[in-house]
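Residues determine shape. Take a concrete instance:
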Amino acid sequence: MNPIKQAGQVRLGSPMLAGLAYGFITMAVAALAASLILISGDQGEEVLPAYAYAIHGLSVLIGSFVTGRRSGSKGWYYGGLLGLVYSIIVLIVGFLSFDRGADWTLLFFAAGAFLAGALGGIMGVNTRR
């Protein structure tokens, strides 16, 4: 037993926790890349909602892919659940930091996150050997 090799391994036990971690890391990296694109380009603020929805969709898709792959079964269920949890966290952050109220767009965002999560979970389960 080599303690140095064991100390370097970090594994998130829960598939949902791992998926959320991957999803939020993806969101941070994609938001940074979108910021750099907006700074260097000549695009205005009117493209920000499209970038935000694309970033959230990609983040949910990657996070649910990881969740489905680690769960091994019921990928649509775990992926969809991850999409709902992700959208609830985004809703809470938006409410607390930007004083955003509840409206119909949040319901559509949650439904889209559920569908993207279910798709990512299905793909994740089917890539497992």
Notes: The chain has one domain: 16-126. Residues 79 and 117 are 4 Å apart (CA to CA). The chain has five helices and no strands. The radius of gyration is 17 Å.
